[in-house]
Amino acid sequence: MEALQCIKIGDPTIPISETSPITISTSHAIPNLISPTSIRVRVKSTSLNYANYLQILGKYQEKPPLPFIPGSDYSGVVDFIGPNVSNFRPGDRVCSFAALGSFAQFIVAEENDLFLVPNGCDLVAAGALPVAFGTSHVALVHRAQLSSGQVLLVLGAAGGVGLSAVQIGKVCGAVVIAVARGDEKVQFLKSLGVDHVVDGGKDSIIESVKEFLKARKLKGVDVLYDPVGGKLTKESMKLLNWGAHILIIGFASGDVPVIPANIALVKNWTIHGLYWGSHKIHRPGVLEDSVKELLSWFAKGLITINISHTYKLSEANLAFAAIKERKAIGKVMIAFDDDSRQKSKL
Ligand SMILES: NC(=O)c1ccc[n+]([C@@H]2O[C@H](COP(=O)([O-])OP(=O)(O)OC[C@H]3O[C@@H](n4cnc5c(N)ncnc54)[C@H](OP(=O)(O)O)[C@@H]3O)[C@@H](O)[C@H]2O)c1
Question: What lines the ligand 1 site, CB under 6 Å?
Fold first, then answer.
């Protein structure tokens, strides 16, 4: 089968060659079932998450031994099932996530870890749902308990997790303020009906958001969704209400922000550190319920999955470059056996 392996730590955006940290094999062994309740899936698509990029750079919190096949969330079709599998049959359309291994034509998972993709839902898009939408759903719904009428501020709002947070915020009935850089991202967010969009590359976030809040007779921000960190977090803190929730999602800026405990005390803020993947070990039921609810929202059209770039596995360096260069609007995908899809914009 075709598989991408990380053979050394380095920059995965350089052209795939002898010096690249990633290599494509066309004759990798197809994985066997690992238990009587396991299932082999023929992968249709797998998404690029910022974490996949950081992992190959050697900058992610989890550092698997080399060589490894990267990749986390994916969709596909059930290819082969163990004798004790009761809920799936060959041919079923599924999606799931793993710690590693989805940048390959086949992957093996336990049946309890797979989700049926509802009829009518695009299978390639379903491969982008678990990590990005799952993270934002657990953060906003389970942790911050975002409710109708509350003000949600989303940083990095056109990226993978950011765009999912914007949409989940709208489903919850929140007033959504989005921060993104560049005209294309700003226009796209406006087209989704976001209440206020700030171009972080041009406008002062504090001034722009304060003006909007004043015009809408709102006091401040109730929930801050932060996958960026650094200077943006520092500025956003000036906009938070008494009793606000801060969701620490990631540090795409490369800068881990400091949140002063004295201000958190005085303002009664709740600060949530959120590592979605670790819920698989500590709160598996929360993850399962969350992905199932998201799939039902996807089937009803309450959320849509925007894919700005799609590549073949052999073009994975270009896919990583789209992430590194902040070009993604929504998700960047690797799709298998699907030459008909729109080619990359790069
Ligand atoms: N906690 C969890 O469980 C969890 C789960 C998934 C992701 N994450 C984290 O969330 C962050 C975003 O992940 P993602 O997959 O959504 O990535 P992404 O699609 O690449 O989005 C990142 C966004 O961050 C913004 N950004 C600001 N400064 C940046 C910089 N210096 N370099 C790159 N981007 C910058 C970009 O928006 P503009 O260009 O518009 O500014 C970009 O749209 C990552 O840190 C990731 O590790 C955490």
Answer: 49-51, 131, 135, 156, 158-162, 180-181, 185, 200, 227-228, 249-254, 274-277, 323, 326, 328
CB neighbours of residue 35 within 10 Å: 13
Q: Name which residue sits closest to atom 12 of ligand 1, judged by CA.
A: 227
Q: How far does the centroid of ligand 1 lie from the alpha carbon of residue 82, in Å?
A: 38
pLDDT value of position 32: 98
Comparing C-alpha atoms, which of 152, 158, 210 is closest to residue 181? 158
Which ligand 1 atom is the nearest neighbour of the CA of 185? 40
Distance in angstroms (rounded) separating the CA atoms of residues 310 and 312? 7
Domains and CATH numbers, the chain: 3-128+305-335 (3.90.180.10), 134-276 (3.40.50.720)
Helix (H, G, I), strand (E, B) or coil at 243: strand
59-109 residue pLDDT tens: 998 899 999 999 999 999 999 999 999 999 999 999 999 999 999 999 999
Nearest to 104 by CA among 263, 261, 314: 314
Summarised one tens digit per residue, pLDDT across range 198-209 is 999 999 999 999
Q: What is d(CA 270, CA 246) in angstroms, rounded to the nearest whole number?
A: 6
